[in-house]
Amino acid sequence: MTALESSIESVRIAAAATDRMKASDIVAYDVSDLIGITDCMLLASATNERQVLAIAEEIEKDLYTKGGKLQPKGREGIQEAQWILLDYGDFIVHVMHEEARDFYHLERLWRDCPRIDLELPEAPADDAA
């Protein structure tokens, strides 16, 4: 398994944790050709500070227990819980309050990068009829 494949597998573990904690707008990009310091970026949104913090904690727990005892090299934004950045070296996770995500619109930085298939379950269709 290449380093990029390993990063993508870890990002999928983190994405599953965000999805389980009801995050929205979960997306990841392969930035390995654009940025030399990391391979992948994962972004997820939450509606309030408590949810931002809960999502970040769930990601850390799952990457440790399911991802080979991975621990972030750096953690930023824990106190404010508006934008938590978890730096795992080969990939970076951004858990953002919806308002912060709308304001900073990080996707524009990586719009030319390939999106990573996170293999998340599809949201149930609203077929009430």
From TrEMBL:
<dbReference type="GO" id="GO:0005737">
    <property type="term" value="C:cytoplasm"/>
</dbReference>
<dbReference type="InterPro" id="IPR043519">
    <property type="entry name" value="NT_sf"/>
</dbReference>
<protein>
    <recommendedName>
        <fullName>Ribosomal silencing factor RsfS</fullName>
    </recommendedName>
</protein>
<comment type="subunit">
    <text>Interacts with ribosomal protein uL14 (rplN).</text>
</comment>
<keyword id="KW-0678">Repressor</keyword>
<keyword id="KW-0963">Cytoplasm</keyword>
<dbReference type="GO" id="GO:0042256">
    <property type="term" value="P:cytosolic ribosome assembly"/>
</dbReference>
<dbReference type="Pfam" id="PF02410">
    <property type="entry name" value="RsfS"/>
</dbReference>
<comment type="similarity">
    <text>Belongs to the Iojap/RsfS family.</text>
</comment>
<dbReference type="GO" id="GO:0043023">
    <property type="term" value="F:ribosomal large subunit binding"/>
</dbReference>
<dbReference type="GO" id="GO:0090071">
    <property type="term" value="P:negative regulation of ribosome biogenesis"/>
</dbReference>
<dbReference type="GO" id="GO:0017148">
    <property type="term" value="P:negative regulation of translation"/>
</dbReference>
<comment type="function">
    <text>Functions as a ribosomal silencing factor. Interacts with ribosomal protein uL14 (rplN), blocking formation of intersubunit bridge B8. Prevents association of the 30S and 50S ribosomal subunits and the formation of functional ribosomes, thus repressing translation.</text>
</comment>
<keyword id="KW-0810">Translation regulation</keyword>
<dbReference type="InterPro" id="IPR004394">
    <property type="entry name" value="Iojap/RsfS/C7orf30"/>
</dbReference>
